[in-house]
Predict the structure.
Amino acid sequence: PPPDLSIHPLGCKRHISKGHRFNAKKEDAGKYFSTKIFSFHTKCPNKGCSQKFVIKTDPKNSTYDYAEGIR
């Protein structure tokens, strides 16, 4: 992902900038050594877009991975 963590949902392709808050379902997605990896499941906040997407923590690189539904 880009360093500013801006996202573009694949459904509407509208820009959502860093700092936008989401209501998301948090799940354990594994471990990297002893650090937990979490995945966050949510949907696009733009009206008229029903795209769901998943973001995972990436403790190896100290960032996030766009797992599904966004670029």
